[in-house]
Amino acid sequence: MKVIATNLGKPTKIQWNGKEEVTGIYKYPTTAPLLLMSTDVVNDTVIDRKHHGGTSKACYLFSADVYAYWKDLYPTLEWNWGMFGENLTVQGLNEATIRIGDIYKIGTAIVQVSQPREPCYKLGIRFGNQQILKQFIDHNRPGTYVRILQEGTVKTGDIFTLVEQSKNELTVQDFYKLLFAKEKDTYLVKLAVNNTALPEKKRTRLAKYL
User: Is 25 exposed, middle or buried (0-12, 13-18, 19+ CB in 10 A)?
Assistant: First the structure.
């Protein structure tokens, strides 16, 4: 995997249900390296701290490989890296093979895969269509958040080095399917509940299915 773009967002005003809000989802490429800290990315905008940022969502990664798919669906948009609110656009990121809990070195930072991204209405606002939320879920390529085990800088061109593969075989894609499945796969539920790299709230919520 390789970093194709490093992206940052500035506070942007939006309208939602007749009210003015501020969001950080409008991210654009920057030439400067990103400094990954324990709860967020330096100089990035995180407004809704309840749902964004924090130790298990310190930095968001999205695959460059699926941009072509979305460009075909939304050809009239002005496209650039960072369209999905990701801090790092990554070539070769495959949610079907990356495991929750995998540890990578990128630049001088060490990160651990923590959970996929669950879309909200702000993604719909950026794309001008709330239908993208269902499309995003159905496509099953959500990207992934990481927690920062060692703070450091990441720049365009940096290569991911696998430091340690999780012994728990739950992949990002497995977990994403599990989140939205009406009928929960018991085997995957057990993997999730026993995967300590996942946020405790998500593990507790899934445990009731056992």
Answer: buried
